[in-house]
Amino acid sequence: NQPQLVTMMAKVLPLLLLPIIGSAATFSGPLALPLKQSASLRLPAMSSNLRPSMHLRGGSDPLEVMTKETKPIEGQKPGTSGLRQKTKTFMEPNYLDNFVQSAFDALVETKAPLEGGTLVISGDGRYYNKDAIQVIAKIAVAHGVTRLWIGKDGLLSTPAASAVVRSREGGFKAMGAFILSASHNPGGPDEDFGIKYNCENGGPAPEKVTDLIFEKTKGISQIKSCDNFPTIDIETIGTTKVSSADGSKTVTIDVFDSTEDQVTVLKQCFDFDAIKKLFDRKDFTFCYDSLHGVQGPYAKKVFCEMLGAPESALMNCEPKEDFGGPGTPSHGHADPNLANARELCDRMGVAKDGSPITGQAEEPPSFGAAADGDADRNMILGTRFFCSPSDSLAAIVDNSELIPYFKKEKGLFGSKGGIKGAARSMPTSCALDRVCKAKNIPFFETPTGWKFFGNLMDTPKYCPFICGEESFGTGSNHIREKDGMWAVLAWLQILAAKNTDASKPLVGVQQVMEEHWKTYGRNYYARYDYEGVDKNSAMKMMDRMADMADKWPADAFGDFKIDKADMFAYNDPIDGSVSKNQGIRFIFTDGSRIVFRVSGTGVVGATIRLYLEKYADSSSDLNQHPMEVVKPLGELALKLSELKEFTGRDEPNVIT
Q: Active-site residue 81, yes or no?
């Protein structure tokens, strides 16, 4: 009988192994042997939490540091959100090892507290995530790390990883985190993988650190690793202690519920009882799509267990290594936009171009939302209504007093007396600017990349702080990453505050935005993505526009009058650092804009992003289709950039 045999082995095996591993070994949990994950042996637990404190003799000390030679691998430069390449590239010999070693070399140079340090290692669950955790753990231990924090099954959303660094065990115990994700990019053996390092504040490493890592990759000659370190059982919650052969050093591995730290932080930001009352309304219906990314466990915890939503309200909430693959409506592309989150959009009555779909047998839900692969992005929908990320950010800031954390009364849910600062990435529409100007909120415009918000969020006089990007990222200073769950709860809190009287008609996302436009006007907005473009051609196009910045002829802009044409550079107001070449801007006197950027999140070629924005004041027609309104700007942009001539592209791959 197999179960009886396993139970007997659990009792007898430690006694049989005692002469081999020595009397120093203790057994109070399932034995973790240095086997490959596919062949790992798991025995029934003999206590609730503790796995063995062990060492192996016979020349196999699990903490012995080994050094192997290596050579630099070209192209390991972190982009906007870390290093991303095809999964099979990461699986090539030493590719991941080289980058991780280079990161530790950079940390040594910056005097990070490696010796005796605590490190977070987890990811979004995409293919190769589990194997990469083992590789990083061995290298980390070789560099003095003595405690590893890992989410169950190797899963932590990017915002949850930031929450773990900032709040677990009282906060700021971890020196940083390796986050394994390519964000919204597809996952699978033939798709994309990624890795980035977050620092001790829980936020992405700043440019000075990522630049140093890249420099280290170009001169690397050796990798230090504890190759005999046992394979970590990431599927079982609990603690394992691994000791050196002489007993002088012990490494502790904690595997924990991936949702607990982020949920704890979110409880400090929102009034869940008030939101639950919204869910209890008979005229309020809700659906949420995790797109088979890491958000599934968090969605079940927050929306079902805490707010009482039925599980039928959740879509695609089982994390998968390929995010569902090509057979799903999203084609395995866990990117919460109108093109990829089609299952959700169809359910909500929203077409691919953002227009309403009518004629459904059942009325679409009142509120819908989606997350990307690592759950740091969000999409907000109302009944037959798409809320653009730029509008969502502006509306959240405008209504921030309805969110407990941002109330003007000090002390409530940690509130410091109302919002003190706000920021957007440069390509994001100027809708936020108008709110900040009207409400006298300090405002900042940064380059694309959440790391650029970090210094502002670490400055007390600007906190509480809200920020966001047009690429479906929104968040606040509660952590140091954009947070898809936070954005959804912010909207639900706003709606809860506007719907306290159940006898009155439900106020939804569309009604909130229409009221916002009546006050501030509307920034019609669209983004064209030209993916897989030859990088040299893309850079030549950008260089030409930069060279022409002050040379454009007066008649180059047709009916539009130019106010400024430049290459955006950012002077960080906190540390004085300068980030150059952050995108071409054409700013017109009527508030319209054309922006060009070469994205740093793709893995094949380059992606040219073209952003188009046309402002309409509150007395204008505020119900036009954005694509039609910005069409003249799009035609002008293609003429100014000579995009077709440089790239050969007639049409964008995606329009958002």
A: no
